[in-house]
Amino acid sequence: MDGLHLLSKVARSCGHGEDSAYFDGWKAYDRNPYHPARNPGGVIQMGLAENQLSFDLIQEWVKEHPEASICTSQGAGAFGDVAAFQYYEGLPAFRNAIAKFMGRVRGGRVVFDADRIVMSGGATGANEAIIFCLADPGDVFLVPSLFDRDVRWRTGVKIIAVACGSSNGFQITTQALEQSYRDATAQGTNVKGLILTNPSNPLGTLLDRQTLKDILKFVNDKNIHLVCDEIYAATAFSAAGFLSVANIVEDMEPAADINLDLIHIVYSFSKDLGLPGFRIGVIYSYNDNVVTCARRMSSFALVSSQTQHFIACMLSDDTFVDKFLRESSKRLEARHAKFTTGLMRVGIQCLKSSAGLFCWMDLRKLLDRNDKECAEDDEARLWRVIIDEVKLNVSPGSSFHCTEPGWFRTMEVALKRIWAFVGRKIGPDVKTKKHRENHVFTISKSSKRLSFEDDNVLSPILSHSPPSQMVHTSYF
Ligand SMILES: Cc1ncc(COP(=O)(O)O)c(C=O)c1O
């Protein structure tokens, strides 16, 4: 690009996610966005993990509580106090409400200290700020299959994937952690920590108590940090529920001898409440120095005081919070079951999961070759077919550092397109349910352009409110 040489190294680098192949799917969507009436053959956005499934409950609350906005006649009395507020600790009511909500989402068994809540611009900002606090350029973080968008770009840290595969359901093992630590140190790098997402993006799985304890022991033994991105905490729908690293800390015996200074949690309201536009991110650290430093850094990405005020009002309504969490998890579970059953009808298996807004879809049968290097190219080729011809923007496993090619993250929309895609070889009756059930997954990648009568987009925007202008993933 002209004039780029005049800019900084960061500006010239290709470290931003937008420069990665992953964003090609987004660009394809931008060029040709799906619309149910105006552009039914357009690209459907399934690369965005949005959760609008329980938006109606929030909208209902907003209508009943105009005082939560300082721009209404009912709320304008607080205008001066709220609009002039600028301390980067955040409104006390906001921090208290977040601490209480985080505890509630973790089964009411953890008490979070409101003085340790540091705000940031979404989890993206929180993840970057915590890395700035913990590491220097060139330092390494170990990551099991993980969403890491943009964490590396401005911080200059590197990421080394921890091998996780289908043989044990993508579980994180101590052996795999040890191996990646050995590999990283053998390359002469300085390993500063381990980054987890729990519940996992892209897997939708939950870490169990023993795995969390093993991980704590691992970071403690190595004296490295543990950053737990728990942005999907309230999306868990299994009976066992979500177990946070904070639950383990809370239950720890005093003799456990774990250095709490190494433990940090990242949270946001982008997924659990489905409010990514509000840019509410949180760093919760057990390390006093990190809290102080992160709070100073937070002045670069504060949450607006009106948003803080609104969230404080909404989350202090216990009846609403209880209803929202109960209903949201019920709807997520129902939608997940519907989608995975639909995929199974054409022989597509998904990793068993019980949280998140997506499914980890196994398309390994579509890869021609088995040796790993070719399979990686194959995954990229298959992904192109899905974007260019099927016109679905799904996310390939490689964009999550998945070391086993052939896995794709998808959302619960456009089942009909997926059925048409995988059933293409079956013949003219492909759209009948009976046919789909009787056939297994056989598809050639040398596909032709498909045409669709209707995309069967299972979107809460469509089911709970009037059709949106732009249909994204909108829940799954
Ligand atoms: C695991 C994870 N962390 C962080 C983010 C970014 O969230 P936010 O919108 O709060 O910046 C996402 C968004 O998809 C995510 O999946």
Can you tag this structure with a few keywords?
disordered C terminus, globular, seven-stranded mixed β-sheet, Aspartate Aminotransferase, domain 1, 2 domains, alpha/beta, 476 residues, Aspartate Aminotransferase, domain 2, binds pyridoxal-5'-phosphate, 37% helix, three-stranded antiparallel β-sheet, 12 strands
Short structural description:
By secondary structure, the protein is α/β, with parallel strands linked by helices.
What does this entry look like structurally?
The protein has 476 residues and is an alpha/beta fold. The protein folds into two domains: 7-54 and 327-426, Aspartate Aminotransferase, domain 1; 67-322, 3-Layer(aba) Sandwich (Aspartate Aminotransferase, domain 2), CATH 3.40.640. The protein contains 16 helices and twelve strands. It has helices spanning 9-12, 22-31, 55-64, 79-83, 92-105, 122-134, 174-186, 209-222, 245-251, 288-297, 305-315, 318-344, 372-390, 415-422, 433-438, 460-464; strands at residues 44-45, 117-121, 140-144, 158-162, 191-197, 225-229, 263-268, 280-285, 359-362, 392-393, 395-396, 407-410. The protein has a seven-stranded mixed beta sheet with strand order 2-8-7-6-5-3-4. A three-stranded antiparallel beta sheet has the order 9-12-11. A two-stranded parallel sheet has the order 1-10. Helix 5 (92-105) crosses helix 11 (305-315) and helix 6 packs across helix 10 (288-297). 46% of the residues are buried. The protein binds pyridoxal-5'-phosphate (PLP). Residues 49, 122-124, 147, 197, 201, 229, 231, 268, 270, 276, 281 line the site of pyridoxal-5'-phosphate (PLP). Pyridoxal-5'-phosphate is lined by residues 49, 122-124, 147, 197, 201, 229, 231, 268, 270, 276, 281.
